[in-house]
Design a protein that fits this description.
Residues 3-112 form the STAS domain. The protein has 113 residues and is an alpha/beta fold. The chain is built from four helices and five strands, in the order ββαβαβαβα. It has helices at 27-39, 57-71, 84-93, 105-110, and strands at 5-10, 13-22, 44-55, 76-80, 101-102. It has a five-stranded mixed β-sheet with strand order 1-2-3-4-5, with helices on both faces. Strand 1 and strand 2 form a beta hairpin.
Length: 113
């Protein structure tokens, strides 16, 4: 299984676009990308999950780990997701209280909190 990933910079934010399934097999690739970005000095991340079809607990763990990593540098990690089946996972786990979740990359980039 492959996990399509791409990154781009918008202002002081780094956008990580993710597609496909984030599961026990593909989550390590996302983890490596997030670690690499933070190690390179990108502390304000936006993870665009609009192309994600499936997310399991391993994927959630990677996102939480990424959040902890950027917060250690006074950074932020925002999510872009408008798919009900993925949003439901965040609601059920209570992670909507942990992650700022936006409906578009533009909204996430413009947000200040």
């Amino acid at each position: 299984m492959d996990l399509p990933l791409s990154t781009e910079t918008m202002g002081d934010r780094t956008i990580v676009r993710v597609g496909g399934e984030i599961d026990v097999y593909t989550a390590p690739k996302l983890r490596e990308q997030l670690v690499e970005l933070v190690n390179d000095g990108s502390f304000h991340l936006v993870v665009d999950m609009e192309g994600v079809d499936f997310l399991d607990s391993t994927g959630l763990g990677v996102l939480v780990g990424g959040l902890k990593r950027v917060r250690a540098h006074e950074g932020s990690l925002r999510l872009v997701c408008n798919q009900e089946r993925i949003l439901k996972i965040f609601r059920i786990t209570g992670l909507t209280k942990v992650f700022p979740i936006h409906t578009s990359v533009e909204e996430a980039v413009a947000a200040t909190d």
